[in-house]
Amino acid sequence: MWIVAISRGVTIAVFCSGLAVVALAQDKSETVSAVRCGSIERIYQLSPRLYCGSRPSTAEDFAELARLGIHWIVSVDGIPPDVDAARTAGLRYIHIPLDYGSIETDQTARLIRAVEAAPGPVYIHCHHGKYRGPAAAAQTAGVLEAWPRERVAAWLSQAGLIPEEYPDLYASAIEPVKPDRATLDAIDPALLPDRAPVPDLVERMVEIDALWMELKEIAPDAVGEPALARQLGEQFRESARREESRRYGPDLIRSLETAAKAAFAVEAAWRDRQPAAAEREAVARSCVECHRAYRNRDRATR
Ligand code: HEC
Fold first, then answer.
1. Local confidence band at 219 (pLDDT 50, 70, 90 cut-offs)
2. Which of 34, 120, 162, 301 could form an S-S bond across to 24 if both were Cys, CB 3.0 to 4.6 Å?
3. What is the pLDDT of residues 160-200, one digit of tens each?
4. Rounded to an integer, what is the distance from CA 299 to the centroid of its chain?
5. pLDDT over 90 for what percent of the chain?
């Protein structure tokens, strides 16, 4: 894979398969180059040793990453990485799950240590490659590649991370607390885990997200499988029942119950062979509203 700047403001990317050449980015010289790699979406090269994008999901994706020259993959997603698929392609996974609030200083330290210790280029990914991954990559570029603030800001805006929606994640991406040498040296890269524990609600949300993605595939005016909507409702209801969900506060429990009702309303409509456009809207709203209130910023400032 080569990135060749042919003239001011125009970047040519050679696909990692080495077959095609396409002009992908046309902007100021600050623009980060997009790369085509398997079925992975939104993959960008920030520097010779740093790539960022969405979650690789097939054996071919991992093989393509290896072909691109990647050695280690850092996942900042809540979904447990597919460690075996990566290993088959000769790649090592490191899991540093982030939420959508500030990146904690110990998370930054692990991230920086992983990238600096890697034997070759590193691929950082979250789920969709839009928010947490770009924020982690921004920290790495700021600390290890000495990117100035304006360049980091341009990258974050290119990736789609906006301060209005994720103020704390954005702030820590643009101004990371730089770990000192002693802190970094205290981290043994060999011991960085390929699967790290995540909060119970994150595990539930990963399930909810998968069901929701499946449900969204169904056209709004079509009738889907009631069992799918039922499963979604049950996941919300179960999340509301979990002891661990209580630490987010009583309003969150109520919102989870409301989301469950909305999903069960979709189920009821589909059972009656009716499309459920309005009911589905209500579920979608519940995701957005609850995330705004409970997920997209630090808890102390909520
Ligand atoms: C009642 C509140 C609530 C509702 C409704 C809700 N979520 Fe969440 N979601 C959360 C919270 C809180 C978190 C963050 C948990 C944490 O990081 O500790 C979260 C996290 C997530 C994550 C991130 C998981 C990760 O990788 O860290 C995804 C994806 C997600 N939710 C998808 C959805 C979708 C899709 C819907 C709607 C179909 C939805 N959620 C509805 C509260 C909610």
1. very high
2. 34
3. 999 999 999 999 999 999 999 999 999 999 999 999 999 99
4. 20
5. 86
Give the pLDDT confidence score for residue 20 in this predicted structure. 35
235 lines ligand 1 (CB under 6 A): no
Regarding the beta carbon of 298 and ligand 1, being less than 6 Å apart is answered no
CA of 203 to the centre of ligand 1 (A): 9
Compute φ and ψ for 171, nearest 5 degrees.
-60, -40
What distance in Å separates the CA atoms of residue 104 and residue 152, rounded to the nearest whole number? Answer: 18
Grade residue 29 by pLDDT with cuts at 50, 70 and 90. low
Is pLDDT above 70 for 238? yes
Integer Cα distance of 110 and 210 in angstroms: 28
Supply angle C-alpha 41, 96, 153, rounded to 5.
60
Beta carbon of 262 within 6 Å of any ligand 1 atom: no
Q: Is 256 in the pocket of ligand 1 (CB under 6 A)?
A: yes
Cβ of 199 less than 6 Å from ligand 1? yes
Residues in the chain: 302
Give the integer Cα–Cα distance in Å for 70 and 89. Answer: 10
* pLDDT over 70 percentage in the chain: 89
Residues with Cβ within 8 Å of residue 129, at least 6 apart in sequence: 40, 41, 42, 43, 52, 53, 54, 55, 159
CA of 291 to the centre of ligand 1 (A): 6
> What would the two tokens of residue 180 be?
């000192």
72 lines ligand 1 (CB under 6 A): no
